[in-house]
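Amino Acid Chain and Its Fold in Token Form
===========================================
Purpose: to set a sequence beside its fold so the mapping can be learned.
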Amino acid sequence: MNPIHALFVLVLVALTESSLAEELEAPRFEIIARLDEAPGNITVTVDGRIILSLHQFYAPKYAVVELKRDGTLVPFPNEAVANTQRREESRLESVLGIRSDGQGIVWMLDNGMRYGSVPKLVGWDSRRDRLHKLIELAPPVTPKDQFVNDFAVDMIRNAIYISDPAGGHNAALIVVHIDISHARRLLEGHSSVVPEAVDLVIDGQPLQVKDDKEQLSRPHIGVNPITLDTKNEWVYFGPMHGRSLYRVKAVDLVDSNLTKDQLAERVERYSDKPICDGISIDRSGNIYVGELAANAIGVITPERKYNRLMQDKTLSWVDAFSFGPHGKLYAVVNRLHQTAVLNAGKAVSQPPYFVLEINPLTEGIAGR
């Protein structure tokens, strides 16, 4: 090889390595909306509508809103239903979990904690703009310390799987049989749903809760993240404050003939995970996770290994993943650790809050 040719090869290799490095280091998410109000969860309908719950820790006027193309927020499904200051039974009050299905039904999980009402699951037909279903989750399905939070929709079995961290020791899953408006509380107190004794520390500050006696404690929250794979076979879940992700077959969750012990035996530990809030899954079985302590987003691969995909100070309590109809993954940033509820009674969280569009490894199912 002559000297000129050798020099050309070296330059080409250097340029290629530089391009690869830039590609790997380039941001893999985009901020598509900057909000004055903090979102709770997000779902994207099969028609591409972006629907957000507004987090109750910030006492919003509206429980649920739609993010319009111009960046504005409008009450969803309408002013009367979404207005949290109304006290009618039909209104939404404290919605966190929100998902949409393949028919355009937007399911909203109202924990009722703002005014002490009965928790309920509300399905709104976004195409016909009318109520599709309302299912109350009254005791004993929900205990006094319930905090029904996130859920997954199973259109094959016409069921919804809800996570309830409750008081920790009594955390459980709730299965709602939509056709008959019936719900069952399952796996209460099982090792797969109760929290571990691990603290969440973000930017050097631990989460702390102040009680009525001004005493501080570090919360340990039970089952929260939950998702259903795209084949509608496995439900993945785990405690927020926990290092393990578990799974159980959906067919076993809906089987009312299984005893408590029989169902418990069918739960398997799937993989390691960081402390996280929301999760989602793509068609290849990659499970996307908000790594709260690191301001990061990671993925649990089908090989059951956790890998960090991206880390950025922007990802400050990244939560509530949802796929859209065109292959993109969406999430919100709400900085919950800076609210008075989780910051020893001191509210330091400030807008803007974000809606993110993320490039996933593989596309997923809209609304999931």
Observations:
- Residues 3-25 form the longest helix (23 residues).
- Residues 1-27 have pLDDT under 50 and may be disordered.
- Helices lie at 3-25, 79-82, 250-253, 260-265.
